Amino acid sequence: MHFTLDMKLKDIMAANPKTAEAMQELGLHCLGCAFSVNETLANAAQMHHLDPNLLLEKVNAVEQGELSPEAAAKAQPSGSILQMDKKTYSIAPHIPAGVVTPEILRKIADVAEKYKAQALKVTSAQRIAIVGLQPEDVPKIWDELGMDPGHAVGLCVRSVKVCPGDTFCKRGLQETLALGMEIDKRYHGLELPSKFKIGVAGCPNKCTDAASVDLGLMGTSKGYHLYVGGNGGVKPRQGNILFENLQRDQVLPVVDAVITYYKENAKPQERIGRLIDRIGLEGLHDYAEKQIQ
C-alpha cells in the first residue's frame, strides 16, 4: 500500500504496524496517544519540525510487518503527553469549567506524591497537569484517579475555559459556570476539521479569552455577546462578533449551529477563523440566526 501525506497516522499503522518504528526513529514518540494518531502524516511532520517528504519516504520504504516489542514499549501511554526530555510524560485530568473539589485535589496530590511527579502545573485550560511521570506508571495513575483524561490535543473541541461569572465574581454580569459545564458536556472531544477552543466569560474583561478563541461568549448587562474565529499561534486572529446580547435560552442553539456550520464547511486543518476569511461571515451568521428567530 502506498501512503500519502493526507493519511492519518492510525490508518498508516493499521495498514502496516511496522511503520511506527520508522516514525519513532524520526522523533514521533506519541504513537500510543489516542489523540495524536488522528493527525495526518503532514500535520505530524509540521508539529515535529520534520521534512514531510522525508517522513513520507521513510514510511513507504518500510517492509510489511508487525510492531516489535521494543517499539511498542516506546509508544506513548494513552492519555499522556511526552515531555521535553523525551523520556517522561505528563497527564492532565479533565476538570469541567475548572471547578475542582477537595476530594479531586487530594487524589491528584496523592498520585503525584506516590509516583514521584516532578511538578504539578495549573494549565491555561483550567486543568492540573501532573508532570514528569514514568511511562509504565501512567496507566496505573489513571486507574487510581478514576478521572477522564480529556482532550488536550487533536482535531476536536478542547476543554472549555469558564470564568466564575456572577456566581462568585463581583464583576460578573451573567451566569457562566452552569452554562460552561453544559457546553463542555455537549461538545468536549467532538471531532472537527481542526482544533476548536471555547471560552465563556461573565463580563467584558474576558478572563477566558472569549474574543481570541474559536468560539467565545461574553456576558453583558443585557445578555451574551458571541464571538467566532479567534485564535492565537503564529498568526493570531481577533474574533468577530456574530451576535450581541443573546438571551440564555438562545445561546446553546446558536453554539450548536456555529459548530455544525464549521464542521460542514471547513477544509481539513482549517480553523474557523480561516474559514471566515475564506468564505466570509455572512453565511455563518444567516445559518445561526435561524436558531433564534
From TrEMBL:
Its EC number is 1.7.1.4. Keywords: 4Fe-4S, Heme, Iron, Iron-sulfur, Metal-binding, Oxidoreductase. InterPro entries: CHP03980_redox-disulphide, DUF1858, NasD-like, NiRdtase/SiRdtase_haem-b_fer, Nit/Sulf_reduc_fer-like_dom_sf, NO2/SO3_Rdtase_4Fe4S_dom, NO2/SO3_Rdtase_4Fe4S_sf, NO2/SO3_Rdtase_FeS/sirohaem_BS. Signal peptide: none annotated. Transmembrane segments: none annotated. Residues 4-55 form the DUF1858 domain. This is Nitrite reductase [NAD(P)H]. It comes from Desulfosporosinus acididurans. The gene is nasD_1.
